[in-house]
């Protein structure tokens, strides 16, 4: 059966909460590790960016016009990336922009420095090589991260050598600067991969542990239920059957009926702590109110429909309680297995008859295929209604499921 909630019936806040639980739990550590990486990379990029900016402001290696253009093109995306990393918003987009901008700046570097004094110190763009490598950790998949780790330092080496006119005296220093940046980029990428892998493994272990615990708890609950039902069948049901078989006098027959009713009630209530309750008569309005409360507990936005008029019928409290509990079980089955699709709850009252009808337009099921050890229908509906001399009929098919509960007041 479908478990998708029916739009408009299940409370929207509850639906959003339920849909978010599994995803949040499944990525608990990964999400926090990702946030830690964002803050660390953002802080490190801010420090390196500040160092590069202080060197860039006083740089005389570029043409003045190029100098202004390169500062704007480089540091505006860098500031946006640092801000995105620290606040945790638009991280991927901001990192991608900066990761693409820096190679463009390196390509433009020989043109910006043409005819200018190259100087002996590394240019300010060198401080940003590993900032671009760190940005790829959030911007690209691992293969592209590796490409950037090699390509960006290589572009710097080529741009710097062109700026220096391929001066042999500077060749070793430039190559060392490029190799240093390349090695550090590899370390950054490897750390990102390792930390994410560890976080994913922790989340996977948590899911497996929770699933194992849930399975063990379910098995334990099922075993306890089996033992309780078995004890109930032995102590109450068999005793009632024996008493009924041996009854010969009207008094013995009355006693056997009472024992059978008690056994059915206990069987119906095996899954909850619910007794027969007070037998003080209640009106139809009380039954409607109890059913409405049950719908509210399941967060189903639906109103119980009273068919016809309240005839003043008074129902014994024990009967009303049993019918309401049986109808509540039908509502629970509809919510769980049909998502409350097209659910309707109706109460019909006549001079001596009370009827409750719970229907939905779910995919339906085969009542005969329900396992014998499941009490949702046999115990909580059929046995509960039978215990108060009522009748329960369940019809289900492709068009939906209809549960009808009827009780007739004795003459």
Number of strands: 7
Shape: rod-shaped
Instruction: Bin the helical content.
Output: 55-70%
Rounded to the nearest angstrom, the radius of gyration is: 37 Å
Helix- and strand-based class?
Answer: alpha+beta
Number of helices: 11
Tell me what you see in this structure.
Residues 1-11 and 17-24 have low confidence and may be disordered. The chain has helices at 12-26, 28-57, 64-87, 91-112, 129-139, 142-163, 168-246, 250-268, 284-297, 317-338, 378-386, and strands at residues 282-283, 305-307, 314-315, 344-349, 353-360, 391-397, 400-408. It has a five-stranded mixed sheet with strand order 2-4-5-7-6. It has a two-stranded antiparallel sheet with strand order 1-3. By secondary structure, the chain is α+β, with helices and mostly antiparallel strands. 65% of the residues lie in helices and 9% in strands. The chain has two domains: 12-207, no CATH class; 276-408, Heat Shock Protein 90 (2-Layer Sandwich), CATH 3.30.565.10.
Brief description of this entry?
By secondary structure, this protein is α+β, with helices and mostly antiparallel strands.
Fold blueprint:
Layout: H1 12-26, H2 28-57, H3 64-87, H4 91-112, H5 129-139, H6 142-163, H7 168-246, H8 250-268, E1 282-283, H9 284-297, E2 305-307, E3 314-315, H10 317-338, E4 344-349, E5 353-360, H11 378-386, E6 391-397, E7 400-408
Parallel strand pairs: 2-4
Antiparallel strand pairs: 1-3, 4-5, 5-7, 6-7
Helix pairs in contact: 2-3, 2-5, 2-7, 3-4, 4-5, 4-6, 5-6, 5-7, 6-7, 7-8, 8-11, 9-10, 10-11
């Amino acid at each position: 059966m479908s478990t998708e909630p029916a739009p408009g019936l299940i409370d929207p806040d509850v639906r959003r909460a339920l849909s978010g639980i599994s995803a949040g739990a499944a990525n608990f550590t990964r999400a926090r590790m990702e946030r830690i990486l964002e803050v660390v990379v953002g802080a490190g990029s801010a420090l390196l960016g500040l160092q590069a900016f202080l060197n860039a402001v006083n740089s005389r290696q570029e043409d003045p016009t190029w100098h202004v253009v390169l500062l704007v093109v480089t540091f505006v995306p860098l500031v946006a990336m640092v801000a995105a990393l620290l606040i945790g918003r638009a991280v991927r987009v901001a990192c991608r922009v900066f990761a693409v901008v820096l190679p463009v700046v390196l390509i433009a570097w020989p043109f910006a420095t043409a005819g200018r004094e190259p100087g002996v110190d590394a240019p300010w763009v060198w401080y940003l090589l590993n900032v671009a490598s760190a940005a790829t950790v959030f911007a690209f998949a691992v293969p592209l991260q590796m490409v950037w780790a090699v390509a960006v330092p290589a572009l710097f080496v080529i741009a710097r050598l062109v700026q220096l006119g391929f001066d042999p005296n500077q060749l070793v220093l430039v190559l060392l600067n490029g190799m240093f940046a390349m090695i550090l980029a590899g370390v950054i990428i490897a750390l990102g991969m390792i930390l994410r892998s560890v976080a994913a493994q922790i989340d996977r272990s948590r899911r497996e542990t929770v699933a194992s615990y849930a399975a063990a708890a379910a098995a334990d609950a099922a075993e306890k239920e089996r033992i309780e039902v078995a004890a109930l069948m032995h102590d109450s049901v068999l005793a009632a059957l024996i008493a009924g078989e041996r009854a010969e006098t009207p008094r013995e027959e009355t006693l056997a009926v009472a024992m059978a009713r008690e056994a059915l009630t206990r069987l119906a209530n095996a899954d909850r702590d619910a007794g027969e309750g007070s037998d003080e008569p209640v009106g139809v309005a009380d039954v409607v109110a109890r059913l409405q409360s049950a719908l509210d507990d399941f967060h189903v936005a639906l109103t119980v429909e009273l068919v016809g008029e309240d005839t003043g019928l008074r129902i014994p409290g024990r009967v009303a309680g049993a019918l309401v509990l049986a109808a509540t079980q039908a509502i629970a089955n509809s919510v769980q297995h049909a998502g409350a699709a097209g659910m309707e709850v109706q109460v019909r009252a006549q001079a001596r008859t009370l009827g409750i009808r719970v229907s939905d337009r779910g995919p339906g099921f085969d009542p005969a295929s329900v396992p014998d050890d499941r009490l949702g229908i046999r115990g909580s509906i059929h046995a509960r209604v039978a215990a108060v001399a009522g009748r329960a009929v369940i019809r289900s098919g492709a068009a939906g499921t209809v549960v009808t509960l009827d009780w007739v007041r004795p003459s």
